[in-house]
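Continuing the series of single-chain predictions for the mutant panel. This is the parent chain; the variants come on the following pages.
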Amino acid sequence: MKKGQLFLSLFIALGLVSGLAWGQEPKKPKLILLIAEQNIESPQTGWWASEIDLSATEAVLAQKIIEAGYEVLEPEQLGETIKKDKAYRTLDLSEKDSVKLANLSKADYVVLGKAVASSGGTVPQSTMRSCFANLSAKLIRVKDSKIIAYLDAAGNSVHTDMITGGREALVSAANNMVPKLIEAISKQQTTQAPGQAGK
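Parent structure:
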């Protein structure tokens, strides 16, 4: 009788322990987006260099990444860190500095890249202009500064206003990059040992 009670107690205890382990949600990986953007006839911009909001490209990426279950650090969360160190105020942020910034903000990944829009010719028999955008980025794992993916995407648009058309092309390029970026992050999460994701 005592043996049966002992086995039952052990079985319940093991069930509780495994239940607690299963009940823990894995930590959401945190990302920083550092994509310098240049629209048609506009200067190159980056939120970390000029204290503006996320670019059109970054806004699309951020929204889709959040929808996929990851966390994106917003500019206001990093404002104080950037103000303290002028090395982060340059548009051409190096890999080393981007990883250092990510470490200070406890991010797991950095998306470092450039997005550039350009104009093409006028659409025949209209006032519409063709606009194109190219987006290239590196996905860097912060814990070991390793580049885990090189990503690129293109987008296009047709508009009477070049600046609006350029913005639409940039948004299109960002939308085209989203699946590649999410797949690259997802692969990293699945290759890590259970309980190690985001560490």
